[in-house]
Protein 1
Amino acid sequence: MTCGKYIANSLSMNKIKLLKSVDLFSELSEADIQILGDNATVRKYGAGDLIVGHTEKVRSFYLVLEGKVKMFRSSPEGKEQTLYIFGPGEPFCLCAAFSNDGFPASASALNDTLIFILPGGEFERIASRYPSVLFNMMRVMSRRLKEAMDLVDSLSLKEIPQRIALFLQHMPQDEKGGVKLGMTHRELAKVVGATPESLSRTLKKMSTAEVLKVVSGNIYVLDAQLLKALAMGEPF
């Protein structure tokens, strides 16, 4: 069952500005952007709140406005694997925009999060008027399919240092080479398919080798070339 609190029936100006910056809607008119805001709902979730459950029947378009969302699958034994982390401006549950079939994974908030939710019928109306929305959607889904395949390859064939290096290479870095995780080490362990203990040992080893350093929950890349070599499979 999903949880969360509806806090608005329309978007404020700063939320509309963010919506206009999303690639999917880059060619929409000002009027249609406003219509999206008028027909959408913004819902607030706290850390750990479930947004969409596995197999839950939904037919809506979801977009992260603030915070971070993780997509994950859980085994019958309770083991959890994080598949993807979404940040502000990123759509998720794209397959739910056109169908109310069961969703193939679950999505939950990693921290305090605001989610833009647009009914599937309204999303279809916009997509039929602006074919670019569908082309942009296909581009996003193709990229995510490739990243999902890379994740499967990483978890099955690569050692933990290489998995961490690949993850860091996919994350946006600030001007100092810092990666703001926005998640606990336990959550990061789920992303790279490791136990929290083995993740901590590996991060400490990489820190000793001056590949990176961990400060207040953020990771700073100290040697980008060595990180790249690790991601490509060079021995650590």
Protein 2
Amino acid sequence: MNTFLGAAQSLPSSALDEAQIAASKILYLEGYLWDPETPRYAMIEAIEIARRAGRKVAFTLSDMFCVDRHRDGFNALIDQGRIDILFANQSEIEALAGVPHLDSAVAAVSGKVETLVVTRSEDGALATRGGERVDVGAEPIARLVDTTGAGDLFAAGFLLGEARGLGLERSLRLGAIAAAEVIQHYGARPEADLRALAGDLLT
């Protein structure tokens, strides 16, 4: 996959809505934006705004090759305590930790962030926090059509659960439901009512 960032590759710090960042419970950032210099500085500024306001910062590694290019920069963000919630798939977390084994990679990284979330495609997902680890299975699907947007939809579901204080298991399940919906059709936007699919998880 060749990712094209479009206008986002020129996103300057001056475009940030500081009030909106400060009013949000969680700021979510994409590792892809670490490639171009201009949005990288905007991301750093956004992190500072969020931290000054006492908000959580979530960061997704985005792509294994992105990790390979920016491992030192990503690890610096993590080691400096700027990331509260880290999202990765299995390949990405192994690349970040530099070990080709899931549990070893999780052990190497989980102590550096408040919450670590690792997606594992058809094997489900896991999350760790403060010594707790929760694993959930993937949601059943009728047919795999297009995986575009699966990671972002998973993060959206998980972060909704986190913002509502639903705990790791329910948040993971919300992420799995959202990801399962988007991979069953073309395009990165959900076509079904995700609230209806979530059912009792949101009550």
